[in-house]
C-alpha cells in the first residue's frame, strides 16, 4: 500500500506558483492517504478500478471514467482498490472560484482526460502560450462536467453516524432497523425520519447503496463475484447479481471483466 503524494507537498500546500499542475501515476500497489487538506483544489480519478474518498459529509466510490472534486481546504482521505493507474489536477484557489464549493463526483470527458495527460508531461518552467491554452481547456472542461451520483451522504446526528460507521466497518451486518435503533438508543421512528432527512435516503436504501459501493471496491481488487456476495451479507449470489444489475445497469461479472466505462448508479 503506497501513501506517497501524487505531487510534491510544497506544491499542493502552496497557493502560489503556477496556477495549475497535473500528474499521471501508475503503480502495482494500491494507494491510501490519511485524512488531509491542501491549499489547492483537486480533481482526481483512476483510469482502472475504483477509488474511495471519505470526507466529513460523505463517502464516495468513484469508478473509472468518473472523478472527484475536492475544493481547497476540505479535509479528505482516499484509497484505491487494486493496482493504481490514476491522475490528478491541482488548481490555485483563484481558479476554483466558479467550481463547486463542496466535494462531489463528476463524469469525466475524453477531452479533459487527454488534456490532463498532456499537462502531466510539462516541466517546471512557466507555461508558454500553447500550454496556457491547454490549461484553459482543462479549466473549462472541469466547469462543464456533469454530476455523477456516486456519493453516499453521511448522517450528522451522532447516533445515526455511529450506525453508519458500524455498517461501513461491516456492510454484511444484517440487523434490522429496530435492532439498530435499540443499539444506538434512538427511537425507530426517529431513526427512520432523521436518516431520510439527513442523507436523502431511507435507511434500507442507504444500506443497499453502501453494499453496492463496497462491491465495486472488492471487485476492483479482484475478489470473485460469489465471495463478494457472501462477504456483503447476501443470502445467495443471484440476489446480489440482481441488485448489482439494478443499481449499475450491468452484471458484476461484466464489471469485473472491465466493462465499467461510464458506470453510473441507476437506482
Automatic annotation (TrEMBL):
<dbReference type="InterPro" id="IPR018062">
    <property type="entry name" value="HTH_AraC-typ_CS"/>
</dbReference>
<dbReference type="Pfam" id="PF12833">
    <property type="entry name" value="HTH_18"/>
</dbReference>
<keyword id="KW-0678">Repressor</keyword>
<dbReference type="InterPro" id="IPR011051">
    <property type="entry name" value="RmlC_Cupin_sf"/>
</dbReference>
<feature type="domain" description="HTH araC/xylS-type">
    <location>
        <begin position="161"/>
        <end position="258"/>
    </location>
</feature>
<keyword id="KW-0805">Transcription regulation</keyword>
<dbReference type="InterPro" id="IPR003313">
    <property type="entry name" value="AraC-bd"/>
</dbReference>
<keyword id="KW-0238">DNA-binding</keyword>
<dbReference type="Pfam" id="PF02311">
    <property type="entry name" value="AraC_binding"/>
</dbReference>
<keyword id="KW-0010">Activator</keyword>
<dbReference type="InterPro" id="IPR018060">
    <property type="entry name" value="HTH_AraC"/>
</dbReference>
<keyword id="KW-0804">Transcription</keyword>
<dbReference type="InterPro" id="IPR014710">
    <property type="entry name" value="RmlC-like_jellyroll"/>
</dbReference>
<dbReference type="InterPro" id="IPR009057">
    <property type="entry name" value="Homeodomain-like_sf"/>
</dbReference>
<dbReference type="GO" id="GO:0043565">
    <property type="term" value="F:sequence-specific DNA binding"/>
</dbReference>
<dbReference type="GO" id="GO:0003700">
    <property type="term" value="F:DNA-binding transcription factor activity"/>
</dbReference>
<protein>
    <submittedName>
        <fullName>HTH-type transcriptional regulator NimR</fullName>
    </submittedName>
</protein>
<dbReference type="InterPro" id="IPR020449">
    <property type="entry name" value="Tscrpt_reg_AraC-type_HTH"/>
</dbReference>
Amino acid at each position: 500500500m503506497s501513501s506517497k503524494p501524487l505531487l510534491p507537498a510544497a506544491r499542493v500546500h502552496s497557493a502560489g506558483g503556477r496556477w495549475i499542475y497535473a500528474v499521471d501515476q501508475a503503480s502495482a500497489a494500491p494507494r491510501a492517504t490519511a485524512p488531509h487538506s491542501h491549499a489547492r483544489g483537486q480533481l482526481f480519478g483512476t483510469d482502472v478500478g475504483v477509488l474511495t474518498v471519505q470526507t466529513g459529509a460523505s463517502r464516495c466510490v468513484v469508478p473509472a471514467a468518473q472523478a472527484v472534486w475536492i475544493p481547497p481546504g476540505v479535509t479528505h482521505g482516499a484509497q484505491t482498490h487494486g493496482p493504481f493507474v490514476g491522475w490528478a489536477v491541482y488548481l490555485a484557489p483563484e481558479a476554483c472560484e466558479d467550481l463547486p464549493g463542496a466535494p462531489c463526483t463528476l463524469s469525466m470527458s475524453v477531452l479533459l482526460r487527454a488534456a490532463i495527460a498532456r499537462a502531466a508531461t510539462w516541466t517546471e518552467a512557466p507555461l508558454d502560450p500553447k500550454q496556457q491554452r491547454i490549461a484553459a481547456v482543462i479549466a473549462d472542461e472541469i466547469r462543464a462536467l456533469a454530476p455523477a451520483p456516486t456519493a453516499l451522504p453521511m448522517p450528522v446526528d451522532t447516533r445515526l453516524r455511529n450506525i453508519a460507521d458500524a455498517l461501513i466497518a461491516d456492510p454484511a451486518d444484517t440487523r434490522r432497523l429496530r435492532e439498530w435503533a435499540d443499539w444506538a438508543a434512538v427511537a425507530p421512528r426517529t431513526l427512520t425520519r432523521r436518516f431520510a432527512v439527513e442523507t436523502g435516503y431511507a435507511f434500507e436504501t442507504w444500506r443497499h447503496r453502501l453494499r453496492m459501493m463496497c462491491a465495486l471496491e472488492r471487485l476492483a481488487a479482484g475478489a470473485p463475484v460469489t465471495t463478494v456476495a457472501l462477504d456483503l451479507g447476501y443470502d445467495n449470489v443471484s440476489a446480489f447479481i440482481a441488485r448489482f444489475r439494478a443499481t449499475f445497469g450491468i452484471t458484476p461479472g461484466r464489471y469485473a471483466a472491465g466493462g465499467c466505462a461510464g458506470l453510473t448508479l441507476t437506482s
